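pipeline: protein-struct stage 2 | run 1193 | Pre-mRNA-splicing factor SPF27
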Amino acid sequence: MSEPLQLTCPLLNETRHLVDCLGYVDTNYASGDVAMQKLVKLQIEQQLAQMPPCDDAHYLAYLPPLNLKLDSREMKRVAAKVKLTSIDTNKYRVVPPAPSQLKKQSQEVQLEAWQQATDHAKVAIEYQQTKILNLEMQNKYGANRWKLQVGVLHGINERCKSELDDVRKQTDQVNMERKEEQLLNADKLQGLERKRNDLTLKTQWIQVPTPPLIPSPYLKRVKPNPIE
């Protein structure tokens, strides 16, 4: 059997001694006893009020530092809630120059407009060629790449299942030992509880003041016997 699971969170290590419950013996809470449920809720609130406030830095101190390696400018943009600049897709469009750029314009302006349209056409052709190349590579290597990815994910899934089964076995073992220990001492605990209740009632009966005797005319005072 593998070793029991070790708690690494310091907050759990500090507060695990607060767990004090006999779930297999104290059945009046689960049976719907309203008075007991109110008492348990009150005790929980009292314990929570006595506990120190949770310190997030101390609570997560055992975790390794998180380094996402993000651009500081991008982080500032996200923090400022500034929208991302949209991508200019005009350079991927193959369109001739607008009529306003050709009519009643100088030859230099028309030449610049046609040069800009030609550059956009070259960019679009290059984009289509790159897209075709990517599709060919995907068709050639994509299946094997996805098979490898599925194999890796399957291995991770099996490992997680194995770890989950181990944790469940450890949990069942702890619950079984807890149940056996509580049921083994249930009779003793119930006997002690009955004894405590009897002693409490006896103490209350003793503490009740005795009412004074009311003199009755039918009672005569008995004189002590001088011989005795």
